Amino acid sequence: MKWAESVLGSVAKLICNLVNLMHKKIFFLFLLFLGAFQVFSEEISLHDAQLAYNDGNHQKAFEIWKNLADQGDIVALNNLGYLHEKGEGVKMDLELSLNYYLESANRGFPTAQYNVGEIYAEGRGVKADKVVALKWFILAGVKGDQDAQNYYEKIFSSLTKKQVEEANQLARDWKVKVPEKKN
Questions:
Q1: Cβ count near 15 (within 10 Å)
Q2: Who contacts 77 (Cβ-Cβ below 8 Å, separation ≥6)?
Q3: How far apart, in whole angstroms, are the C-alpha atoms of residue 69 and residue 87?
Q4: pLDDT digits (tens, 9 = 90+) for 111-141
Q5: CA 105 → CA 138, 158, 180, distances in Å?
């Protein structure tokens, strides 16, 4: 009889261990699902912001992009720059717009680099500086931004050889700026 109790006790322990193991696996799968959902929801957030913007709900687009920009999203930073440049959903603020564009551009986003170049080329909210503009068009252009390549050609002939060399040197010296982690 003791043998039967011993076997039953061992079987009971085995069943408990299997149940615990199954719970751990289910919990692990649940955590994986949540992680995948978080990544998916971030992609949806950029998408949702663009849909809100396209529907004319600039305030909602601003809120989503601001949240993503606070997490370091370079596309969202660029888009916040655009909203502030145009005054859509927020107060028009060319200085803040340039700051958002620069933060995105300095992290290597070619669209933002083009936007910074255009601002300096046209002197919108800053003193026009075609050398600085050319630098940003070079950086965006080498990443395939066609608008930057076109603008480069547009202002190239208005610059001296020395100015073009200076812009090229600025572009060569430029480095992607990685944001510091917040504690």
A1: 10
A2: 69, 100, 101, 103, 104, 107, 109, 112
A3: 18
A4: 999 999 999 999 999 999 999 999 999 999 9
A5: 12, 24, 16
Question: Got the DSSP string for 93-160?
Answer: -HHHHHHHHHHHHHTT-HHHHHHHHHHHHHTSSS---HHHHHHHHHHHHTTT-HHHHHHHHHHHTTS-
- Tokens linked to 121: 């080329």
The predicted model scores a pTM of: 0.73
Q: What is the pLDDT, as a whole number, of residue 3? A: 46
Take residue 119 and report the two structure tokens written for it.
């601002």
Rama region for 83: left / alpha / beta (φ>0; ψ in -120 to 50; rest):
alpha
Name which of 146, 93, 136, 88 is nearest 115 in CA terms. Answer: 136
What is d(CA 28, CA 25) in angstroms, rounded to the nearest whole number? 5
Spans of the chain below 50 pLDDT: 3-4, 7-8, 18, 24, 26-42
One-letter amino acid identity for 178?
Answer: V
Q: Which residue has the tokens 């090229």?
A: 168
Asked whether the beta carbons of 78 and 111 are under 8 A apart, the reply is: yes
**What whole-number distance in Å separates Cα of residue 20 and Cα of residue 3?**
26
CA angle at 112 for the pair 55 and 77, rounded to the nearest 5°: 60
